[in-house]
Amino acid sequence: MRFSETKLDVLKTRDGTELDIHIWEPEAPKAVLMAIHGGLAHAGDYVTPALYFKEKDIATVSYDLRGHKQEKIFISSFDQYLEDTADFLAWTKKTYPDIPVFVMGHSMGGLIATHFGIRYAADEPRIKGYLLSSPYYKNAIKVSPVMIPLVKLLGSVIPKAVIPGPDLTEMLTHDEAITRRHHQDEADGLRGTKATMRFGSELLKAQKWVQENFSKWDHPMFAVIAGDDQLADSAESEALLKTMDSRLLTYVFHKDNFHENFNEKNRQETFDSMYEWIFDKIN
Predict the structure, then answer these.
(1) What are phi and psi of 130, to 5 degrees?
(2) For the chain, what is the radius of gyration of the CA atoms?
(3) Which CATH fold would you assign to the domain 7-282?
(4) N or C: which end of the chain has fewer CB within 10 A?
(5) Around Cβ 11, how many Cβ atoms within 10 Å?
(6) d(Cα 196, Cα 192) in Å, to the nearest integer?
(7) Lowest mean pLDDT: which of 58-67, 92-101, 143-152, 188-197?
(8) Coil, strand or helix: which one is 222?
């Protein structure tokens, strides 16, 4: 397996689309992390935390989001991600019927997980908590001031046109080995490199919805924010998270991290804190 998976499976969604599931599984898992990857990425990116948690007898499962694994990332509607994640939760509950489930989301995956926790899984007893890294609640990518309103307009007019912007790969982690892996994944067609207008406009709508509805959040959350994040606005994430019930929030801030906390050089510290939080929920 390219990303050290134990095995692969296929998620058959309600509209017939088939999406690869990557599975990192210990012999007798005590819990399962249902992981949602970020934009312009793929499920194999979870290999780093997945191998750590496998050694702790915790399984990680992640599916490749639709519209990815191609150069230009396209999605008709953000709600498709939520429907696919609901199907993925059903698969996870069936595959692991007797152990706690935790939802893990990085970047856009954190945005999806936040919608999911409010709109789809508000009363789901199997989910014991959410672990979010650099949730993409507001854009921090440097673009022209006119680009945001243009994306909102052109998402309907020319949905598959590409949003011009900088190369983001060097902005993800200080770990040069993982950056080289990302570049290789791009060369091999596993990671997208361009966002389309429709994709961007759907994310902007999803971000606006979270800002307007975050007060409905009512789940235990472990959140880790990167202080030197050049993709997701860390100040906006921090401000929004601190509006929630403090009894539900465990918050970690790494001031020097780039966007990918799970791939940063201090990730062992992050994973140790995450494991303590999970251990407390399952014991």
Answers:
(1) -125, 135
(2) 17
(3) Rossmann fold (3.40.50)
(4) C
(5) 20
(6) 11
(7) 143-152
(8) strand
